[in-house]
């Protein structure tokens, strides 16, 4: 009679893994789906006794365009809309195909929504009139920040600021509608197109984040009250420009390295900002020898991100001055130095600038 070897006996006597219990169908159906952006906006609208729905509609229009751009970003390699156009935009930067695509999508959505009377875009030299002359709001927007990174599958984003117009309704918007200053923003935010797509915004009452659920085609509330840590362990900048940075910036970065802080730089403003918002840190884009006024645009990049970071408990400055207190000039594409992030780190940088 043959007897099994000890190894075989041990193997055959080993307990079989238990199958992972799956919730019954009726239990899974009972689980809440979550709060959609649409439902959240409607609920918050009731908290303002004089709200009439225009701002809520604007946020929905921006979310709609964000969904469409998200679709184009996800299939960009297949639809052959990556790469440069071979032209420059009004900023003197190489214009990407997706820049043009995103610009068209946001302009169409905001025009069709009916509440926005004019748009200031990074991609257009002049104000874009939507024809909605009765509209009470204007939108300043960078339709696709960091679009050159799409070819290598790196996160990119959209940045927007919303103002209540000050010019007379019934006619076209004017430059003064966009030159009210950062404190006049009624809403601001960004959309991140990454491993998951998120819409993060503020209306001056805290910062809220929504994550896009592709199968349902909806943004769902995922981060109800975002706060940036007061201190952080990350500094984000293009150290290739080190020799062109002001002395106080180099001194601050040297201190960061001596304290063994971590350097992280994606090269997409929204991606770097988003990471630091959640983990704590500081993003730096100083003035350089080549760009003595700075590189980032005040009205549709720095103002909205500064409003959002302040609502999250952080700080944004151009050096000594708070970004939201920088007066706009007549240049709609005005540039400024930009430092944004955790309060303690930014205050350290301010002290170094004095």
Automatic annotation (TrEMBL):
SUPFAM superfamilies linked: Carbohydrate phosphatase
Pathway(s) of this molecule: Carbohydrate biosynthesis; Calvin cycle
Top EC category: hydrolase
PROSITE patterns: FBPASE (PS00124)
Positions bound to Mg(2+) 2: 142, 145, 301
Catalytic reaction annotation: beta-D-fructose 1,6-bisphosphate + H2O = beta-D-fructose 6-phosphate + phosphate
Cellular compartment(s): Cytoplasm
MF term (GO), any: fructose 1,6-bisphosphate 1-phosphatase activity
UniProt-annotated binding residues for Mg(2+) 1: 122, 142, 144
Signal sequence segment: none
Chain intervals for the UniProt region annotation (Disordered): 1-25
Pfam families with a match to the protein in the record: FBPase (PF00316), FBPase_C (PF18913)
InterPro entries tied to this protein: FBPase_C_dom, FBPase_class-1, FBPase_N, FBPtase, Fructose_bisphosphatase_AS
Domain called Fructose-1-6-bisphosphatase class I N-terminal: residue spans: 36-224
Keywords: Carbohydrate metabolism, Cytoplasm, Hydrolase, Magnesium, Metal-binding
UniProt family annotation: Belongs to the FBPase class 1 family.
Protein name per UniProt: Fructose-1,6-bisphosphatase class 1
